[in-house]
Each structure stands twice: as C-alpha cells, then as structure tokens.
Design goal:
With about 210 residues, the protein is of the alpha+beta class. It has two helices and eleven strands, in the order αβββββββββαββ. The protein is about 25% helix and about 30% strand.
C-alpha cells in the first residue's frame, strides 16, 4: 500500500497553487493586452474619422461657376469614375473677368493640356500624365506654386509642369496661374462638350459654407 507523506502532499498543493497563480497572471496579462489593442483600434478609428471629417463632399454641377476660397480649397480635390464612353475631364479657372486658365486630360491616352502653357492636343503624346493608378474611381488633386503646376492622383504625383517650359515664352503662362494677372475668383468643371467625363464630386475643407 502506497503511503504519501504529508511533506509530499504539501509540495503538490504548493505546485498546484503556483500553477493556478501563474495561469491567473497570464490571464490578467492577456486581458490587459486585449484592452490595449482595443484602445489602439478605437483611437485609430477616431483618427480616421476625424481626417475624413476635414473635407466636405459636394456634387458637381456641370458648367456651374463656383466661387473660389483659398482658405477652404488650398488645392483642388475632385473625384472621377471611369466611363468608357467619356474620356476627357476639364477644369476651368477664372482670374477675374477676362483672364482664365484650364486643365484638360484624357483617360484614353492620359494626354494633358495646361492652357497657355502646353499645346492643346491630348492625343499626340507630347504631354502626358504618368503612372496614373488604376480606376475606376480616382481622387485628383491639382495645385501649383510660383514655379510648377502639379497633378496628383490617389495621393501619387502623376504630372509636374515647369512654367519655364511654356511654349509661348513671350507670354509667360505662370502669370495666369500664380495670380500675377488677377486673383483666382471662380472655377467650373465643364460638361458642355462631347466626350467629357464630369467629376462626380469636389471637396472643400469644412468650416465656412461654400458661397456660390
């Protein structure tokens, strides 16, 4: 008949208690880690939501002139969706009553024209957007400084134009887009020509109400 000493029994009890304590400690650690992960996820979601709320989406009305406000539109942001029957997108900028500029591009060849700066043929491969991300939905950003005109698509730079490369050197086109010949006052997305794919929406920073 086996006899288990009191000392051995005590050791078994201590070992079992130690195991339970270790399991309890591991359980608390896992619960703490889960809580940390949940808090990180919530914070990330709130941050994304906050970022999304910085911009207000507005449906584009073709050929409608919108008043421009640099405080809410530090750059032009607009969304296009591919249409196999419509390939061109036109953005016209008005600098007062008589001066205007225009950006045009075609999704067939990704040819691009900057009015008064480049030639007006979108299909001769002289000026092209490069590395345009796949569609069908694309978010465009258009902006410029004193030396360059930029076009981004889905947060990727697809065109940089140097104003020094203007085809009419005697009539420097940078004066149009940089406001030297008048401040940018209005803009429109054209839709009164055949083959134009009018953007579905443009975006303004939240704050003041858009004045039209």
């Amino acid at each position: 008949k086996a006899v288990v000493s009191t000392q051995s029994t005590g050791k078994i009890h201590l070992t079992t208690l130690s195991l339970f304590l270790d399991l309890d400690s591991i359980g608390k650690t896992m619960r703490l880690l889960c809580l940390v992960l949940v808090l990180i996820a919530v914070a990330s979601t709130m941050n994304l939501t906050k970022k999304k709320k910085k911009w207000r989406s507005q449906e584009v009305v073709p050929d409608k002139r919108y008043d421009y406000d640099s405080a809410k539109m530090p750059r032009f942001r607009f969304k296009t969706i591919d249409d196999p029957t419509l390939s061109e997108t036109w953005l016209t900028l008005y600098y007062g009553q008589y001066v205007w500029g225009q950006l045009r591009f075609s999704s067939k060849t990704w040819g691009v024209e900057l009015y008064a700066c480049t030639d007006d043929n979108l299909y001769d491969n002289n000026n092209s957007l490069t590395g345009v991300p796949d569609g069908p939905e694309r978010l465009w950003e258009v902006y410029w400084d004193d030396d360059h005109f930029y076009v981004d698509c889905n947060k990727k730079r697809v065109w940089t134009y140097d104003f020094n490369d203007a085809i009419f050197p005697d009539n420097d086109c940078r004066g149009v887009y940089t406001g030297r010949r008048g401040a940018l006052s209005q803009f429109e997305f054209n839709g009164d020509r055949r083959g134009i794919n009018v953007p579905k929406a443009f975006y303004t920073k939240k704050g003041r109400k858009n004045v039209e």
